[in-house]
Every structure is written in structure tokens, then in C-alpha cells.
Amino acid sequence: MKDYYCVLTFHTTHHALNTEKVLKENNVAVKLMPVPRKVSSSCGIAAEFPCELKEAVLNICNSHHIELDQVHKIQKDSKHNWFAKLLNTAK
Question: What pTM value is reported for the model?
Fold first, then answer.
């Protein structure tokens, strides 16, 4: 299991929804989500995708003239993960 993931942030919700559509049409595993607390953005929606696809995602967005705010690599915080806590208490 990876301990990180990447997210795109956007200036508007419209850009987030358009990006999801375009990336799915290009067979990129993408999931819209609230912007993580670690990240600041003017729009509350981010698009999560596998970090190993970063260059491909940026190329697709560029070729479709999609406006992005930033790309972030987010470290997962396992100590706050409720599922990990549940597994630790099940011992």
C-alpha cells in the first residue's frame, strides 16, 4: 500500500468537473474529493490520481486547455486513519 497520493487543485468547480471527465475519457483513474486540509485552494474540490501518472495527467490537461491551480503530492497520515486505528484495536 502506498503512503502517498497526488491531487490536482482548481480555481473553480467547473474546472474540477471538466478535468474528471477528460481524464476518465483518457482512461486515467481519477476521483474527485474535498481538498485535503494540508492543501489550500480557492475551490473546495480536488482530483486524486496515482502519482506515477503525473506527467501524463499534466499533458492531457495541457492538451485540453484545462486550467489547474497546483499539483500536490500528499503523504498519508496513518496515525489519523480510522481504519488503521480499527485494525490496531482488533488485536
Answer: 0.75
